[in-house]
Specification:
Elements (H helix, E strand, L loop, with lengths): L16 H13 L6 E3 L5 E4 L1 H6 L5 H7 L3 H4 L1 E7 L4 E7 L6
Antiparallel strand pairs: 1-2, 3-4
């Protein structure tokens, strides 16, 4: 019988499991972009500080408590008329086209 080899991911920093978890948690929390996870019905499960600040909240906890429906509360779709044709333009609250 062929023996299965176990896979050990590379660990260039030489960190143990708990240190590795903390390393990645800190990287996400300190990222200069908004990072989050959400439920299928549109509630935040996790959010970093950058995302909270992008949407005008002081903390991720405040954002997650306040927003019950990401699609309805964070993203806004505007119907506008251009000279060429009617288009649907979706923008987030920062005014960026999505």
């Amino acid at each position: 019988m062929e023996q299965l080899m176990s896979y050990e991911p590379p660990n260039p920093l030489g960190l143990d499991e708990q240190q590795t978890i903390k390393f990645y948690q800190d990287a996400i929390e300190q990222a200069p972009i908004g990072i989050f996870s959400a439920t299928p019905d549109g509630r935040y499960l996790t959010a970093n500080t950058t995302l909270a600040m992008m949407h005008g909240y002081k903390t991720p906890e405040e954002l997650m408590e306040s927003v019950r429906d990401i699609a309805a509360q964070i993203y806004v779709c505007l119907l506008y008329t251009s000279d060429a044709a009617d288009d649907l333009l979706c923008v987030d609250l920062g005014g960026r086209r999505i």
